[in-house]
């Protein structure tokens, strides 16, 4: 099988994962009243698996590129240099966009929150800090039924993925 075919298969899986996440978040998030079609989709497919599929794809893609690179290292210094380069590439690829969206959500809370839909400023400041420092998954788990998380609760998945990237080469 050609390399490009495998990549296209991964792209198809990413599209399926996007649909799973989209359908999971549509019901109870976008529409004020329940939508029968979305309820049936959610009932029969349980689309929360979209995030799980994203994690599996990410692990595959990262392992596919990083493991051969690390195996090609002949010294410990080369190994850690390759690891450092991997971490820097991931940081420069993911963090600018992630931090931009965290800032935009915080600004929305500050300036577009007359209805209170964005939650409290304190919760959003703490959530933004958790997103920037990559511990949002721990904060999200701790917040269940205990306190308001803030609008950036979806960053739990990025934090978990970043922790994987940090620990995987070790």
Key features of this structure:
mainly alpha, 2 domains
Indicate the topology.
Elements: H1 3-26, H2 36-45, H3 49-71, H4 76-111, H5 121-132, H6 136-143, H7 155-167
Task: Kindly describe this structure.
The structure is a single chain. The chain has two domains: 1-72; 87-170, no CATH class. It is 74% helix and 0% strand. It has helices at 3-26, 36-45, 49-71, 76-111, 121-132, 136-143, 155-167. Helix 1 (3-26) runs antiparallel to helix 3 (49-71) and helix 4 packs antiparallel against helix 5 (121-132).
Give a brief description.
This protein is mainly α and 170 residues long.
Secondary-structure-based class equals mainly alpha
Residues in β-strands, percent? under 5%
Task: Give the SSE string.
Answer: HHHHHHH
Number of helices: 7
| First-last Cα distance | 31 Å
Amount of helix: over 70%
Instruction: List the uncertain runs.
Output: none
- Say how many strands there are: 0
As for the number of domains, it is 2
| Overall radius of gyration | 19 Å
For the sheet with most strands, the description reads:
none
Given the C-alpha coordinates, what overall shape results? globular
Mean pLDDT: 87
